[in-house]
Amino acid sequence: MADLYEALEGSGYDDHEASIFLVRVLFALYADDSGIWERDLFTEFIELRTSTDGSDLGAQLTMLFQVMNQPKERRASTLDELLARFPYVNGRVFAEPLSIPSFDRVMRDKLVSACAFNWASISPAIFGSLFQAVKSPEARRELGEHYTTETNIRKTIDPLFFDELTEKFEAAQHDTKALKKLRGELAELRLLDPACGCGNFLVVAYRDLRALELRILLRLQELGDTSQIPLFFQRDDLAVKLEHMAGIEVEEWPARIASTALRLVDHQANMQMELALGKAPDTLPLDTITVIHVGNALRMDWNEIVPESDATIIMGNPPFIGMSWMSKEQQADNRHVFAPISAAKGLRTGRLDYVACWYAKAAELVTLRPQSRVAFVSTNSITQGEQARTMVPLLAGMGCEVDFGHRTFKWTSEAPGAAAVHCVIVGFSSTQRPNKRHRLFSYPRITGQPIETVPDRLNFYLFDGADYVPVKLTKPLIEGMPNAHKGSQPTDGGHLLLDEAAMREAVQIPEVAPYVKRFVQARDMLQGSPLRWCLWLVDAQPQHLRHPFIRQRLDLVAESRLKSPTVSVQEYAAKPALFTQNRQPEGSYFALPEVSSENRRWIPGQFFDTDVIAGNKLIIFPDAKPWHAALLQSSMFMAWVETFAGRLKSDISLSPGLAYFPIPWPELDQRAQQQFTDRIDQVFEAREAYPEATLADLYDPAAMPAQLIDAHTALDRTVDKAFGAAALLRSNDERLALIFERNNTP
Q1: At 651, phi and psi to the nearest 5?
Q2: pLDDT band at residue 521, thresholds of 50, 70 and 90?
Q3: For a designed S-S bond to 522, which of 18, 329, 383, 617 qualifies (C-beta 3.0 to 4.6 A apart)?
Q4: What is the edge-to-edge ordering of all strands in the sheet holding 497-498?
């Protein structure tokens, strides 16, 4: 089918016509095998009514499509008997006139091969992804991943609404009144996916709702109540109808696929009902309802798109686009969405990821329909750092609160060829909606299965507790804690930095040797090699700067800086001997990597002397004492940064203003400070027992030595007690709760 699509485009068909034509062919292939019409009727037509050289295939298919768009009573009496056997399809599937495509023998052979496949064996739950893959060679190489998407879709729809419906059904097994009431609830549901892509969310939800309705009818029949089963089942007799679904998709091709996939799953549901009850609505002719709307969801009125009902379900996985990657059009979408929202005034909504626009639009609809529910798959950055600091007051100001959440896990997007991304799922609704049950799903391994807990409260950071937004500070909240900032930034094109060979040359030159200093970035500190040095020329004598070893490098630095698009860097071309940002402390300091792997239980840090120049990828703590380092190497610190620090992909990204300064550390007397010092010394000693191992080796969860784990556990026990715990706490959630108590939060 992919080859056929490429051939259609190559024959002169534009993308629009090729898309429509291929959807029609795919519909016919599926209908051939699934009982929509006589089995293999389309295959018979291709084999008996088209030439083997493919010369008339385009014309014959065009004629067939026209016939399927005509009611039987309006067809010519002289119509070919094979064409006359095709039913009237309607539903606008075959309505738009197309130019006649050109085919050849190879293209016809490919279509015949496609006819031989059993298309009914494909679940419509993945039908959309397979259709989309037809247009993407990269996705065709990764089709196996699409078979897992339903599992991830269930992570959204089950806690959002379907688990509750299933529980009600189980509880009503012997109560006909309750079963009828539940079927009535199904009839009230209205589902919207405002970024529906190929419709997978809607397909899975519709399929399962129809299946639940059938289970209700069968159970009523078993209990002797057939009042819900009419003599002749029409579409209007269904509680769950296609017109109760709504999707919005910006691109035509996936929108057409979504519409087709929903028609096919509707047919499957009808067949299952026919098999179970002996009666069901006819699939054909299709009605002309519009379920999937093509357009920019952020510029549309969702209240007009989704049919009126207070039992509205909004779900999906909007585009995974970070704030810094948004196009000008997407930035304009952001402004369009947030400008009229009063709760957004004064918030930094322009710094939010693109998905936040869908949260805001959904919350607006919730204010109109207070019993509605929402759940979106989002990149995990939305629940962290600066993003969450904006989202918390935004949703609260719009009268919404979190109901359930999936913490970070790996999701494979429905979009063909899309890379696996680190996601969360956030379910929320109006604060007015009664009888809520909070649910939290945590992933010890982001590729593994979740562990569910039932928290008393659930906040937007996806942990048990009230909403809390730490204030971004410019100095430590607690007196006595050291300052923190990035290290120095060379912006030198690499010309002030020295590898080992250049260092050995430099130290042999008397005029250069005094200025050779060890240079450390986060990678150097964690990986240990290759070692690097730099020319630190802050106090260099002018005559020394003229030495050829230095002068040559300074010329290259100036040249590199002049090419920079940043004005301040260009200005530093006149000072090539200096780093563009000099933040080197005058004394010793403790350092943490600015970015650290999500997999580490602790972010490893290290002390350095002032002669070691810290690079800008380190966060440094000038004049830090060992007991300060103990706090920064504790799980209490990790509990804070995992929640409030920013993220680079899924890795922790430290910025002191949020990740360190606002922490309400306990006040420690000299005895406690000495206890902390003893504990951190044990950590350092445990590291020194493995002199050949790097910090990356030592803090790899799979390789971390038991001695080092024990030392950190002892340190954690001491820090936990300093925060008021009676003993070692079991989780970072418990630690965060303690921190909040210290900060006088609810």
Answers
A1: -80, 150
A2: very high
A3: 617
A4: 497-498, 532-535, 516-520, 612-614
Q: How far is CA 421 from CA 424, 445, 694, in A?
A: 10, 14, 28
370 neighbors 310 (Cβ within 8 angstroms): yes
Q: Which two tokens stand for residue 519?
A: 């240079």
* DSSP states along 159-212: IIIIHHHHHHHHHTTT-HHHHHHHHHHHHH-EEEETT-TTSHHHHHHHHHHHHH
- Could you tell me the sign of the dihedral formed by the alpha carbons of 52, 58, 63, 68, in that order? positive
C-alpha 142/C-alpha 147 separation (Å) is 10
Q: What is the DSSP string of 691-713?
A: TT--HHHHT-TTT--HHHHHHHH
C-beta neighbour count of 745 within 10 angstroms: 15
Type of residue numbered 172: A
The tokens for 14 are: 């534009």
Q: What are residue 429's phi and psi, to 5 degrees?
A: -160, -175
What are the extents of the domains in the chain? Answer: 2-121, 122-316, 323-359+375-469, 470-488+586-746, 489-582
DSSP letter at 158 equals: I
The whole-angstrom separation of Cα 422 and Cα 377 is 10
If you average pLDDT over residues 125-148, what whole number do you get? 52
Q: What percent of the chain has pLDDT over 70?
A: 94
**Interatomic CA distance for residues 679 and 695, integer angstroms:** 18
Task: At 392, list the tokens.
Answer: 């918390």
Q: Write a three-state SS string for 586-651.
A: CCCEEEEECEECCCCCCCCCEEECCCEEEECCEEEEECCCHHHHHHHCCHHHHHHHHHHCEEECCE
Average pLDDT for the chain: 90
Note the pLDDT of residue 142: 40
Kindly indicate the confidence band of residue 745, based on its pLDDT and cuts at 50, 70 and 90.
very low
When pLDDT is cut at 50, 70 and 90, the band that residue 124 belongs to is low
Instruction: For 1-32, write each residue's pLDDT tens digit.
Output: 677 777 777 777 777 787 788 888 888 998 99
Q: What sign does the CA torsion over 25, 26, 27, 31 have?
A: positive
Give residue 494's region: left, alpha or beta (phi > 0; psi -120 to 50).
left
The CA distance from 524 to 591, in Å, is 12
Bridge partners of residue 369, in order along the sequence:
none
391-449: per-residue pLDDT in tens?
999 999 999 999 999 998 887 654 445 556 788 999 999 999 999 999 999 887 888 89
With 0-12 CB in 10 A as exposed, 13-18 as middle and 19+ as buried, what is 620?
Answer: buried
| Nearest alpha-carbon partner for 590 in 570, 614, 611, 567 | 614
Q: What is the dihedral of CA 614, 384, 149, 151, to 10 degrees?
A: 120
The backbone torsions φ and ψ at residue 593, rounded to the nearest 5 degrees and listed phi first, read -70, 140
CB contact set of 434 (below 8 Å; sequence gap of 6+): none
Distance CA 309, CA 302 (A): 12
Question: What does each C-alpha distance from 420 to 194, 325, 410, 423, 523 come to in angstroms?
Answer: 21, 17, 6, 9, 25
Q: Which long-range contacts (CB under 8 A, 24 or more apart) does 441-450 make?
A: 441/155, 441/159, 441/404, 441/405, 441/406, 441/407, 442/407, 443/406, 443/407, 443/408, 443/409, 446/408, 446/409, 446/410, 446/422, 446/598, 446/650, 447/409, 447/410, 450/155, 450/406, 450/407, 450/409
